[in-house]
Amino acid sequence: MLKNCFLFLTPFIFSAATLFSQQKILSHLHQSKTPVIDVQNRRIHLPATFHPGAYDGWFTHTNNYHAVVWDDGGASNAAPLTTPVSDSLFYAALIEIGALPGNNLKHAAWAERKNREHPAPDQRVQGSAVKLTVWWPGLTEPLPLETLFTDPGKKGIELRFGGNLELIHKWHSGCIVCLYSCPGGKISNAAYTIRDYVDGTTHFEIDKKIAPRKNIAVILTFKLSEP
What we know:
This protein has one domain. The protein contains five helices and 13 strands. It has helices at residues 19-32, 87-96, 108-111, 168-171, 194-199, and strands at 2-3, 36-38, 43-50, 66-70, 81-83, 130-135, 143-144, 149-150, 159-161, 175-178, 187-189, 205-206, 216-224. The strands form three sheets. Strands 1, 2, 3, 4, 5, 6, 7, 10 and 13 form a nine-stranded mixed beta sheet that branches. A two-stranded antiparallel sheet has the order 8-12. The longest helix is centred in the N-terminal third of the chain and has 14 residues, at 19-32. It is globular.
């Protein structure tokens, strides 16, 4: 893990003169395949790849569900963004910048998702609030994650550090960011529950007007919003 270096990555102030520098940063991250941790500014930068065709695949177990997944995770073929940084390494990086895991979601939230009588699928993720932005060559500034998706339910994306460290070796999904309140993701979306996913309360889709149309290397920046 790279720590307290390349601090010029933040706060991502862009101009025509700095875009070339961003290309170098992008290249460095993807060559090192490690996170850059900025403890002072409570930020983490990850190398990642955007896959426009993966997210909407009808042959995946949980399509239109994951946002960011470890390359070697079981859900990597169903995520629009994948990273060579493992979910356990990312968890440790969040702890290092001072994030507090909620750890309120249990396995039952997913396992009982079709059981209308069980309360677990209705729970919302807790934990430190996190903002996620995405940058790729051609952008003048990073984009908030939510701008890459359409959201018919219009509740948006409220990311929180759910934690769920003990489930990493149980699920092997590699999920880093989930678009619903899921015990499988290190970070997930408090705006929607797993019940919402089952009921189709919203159906996140890639916004093709904004997102790249082919696989492209990107920089993911996670910023801790509160202790």
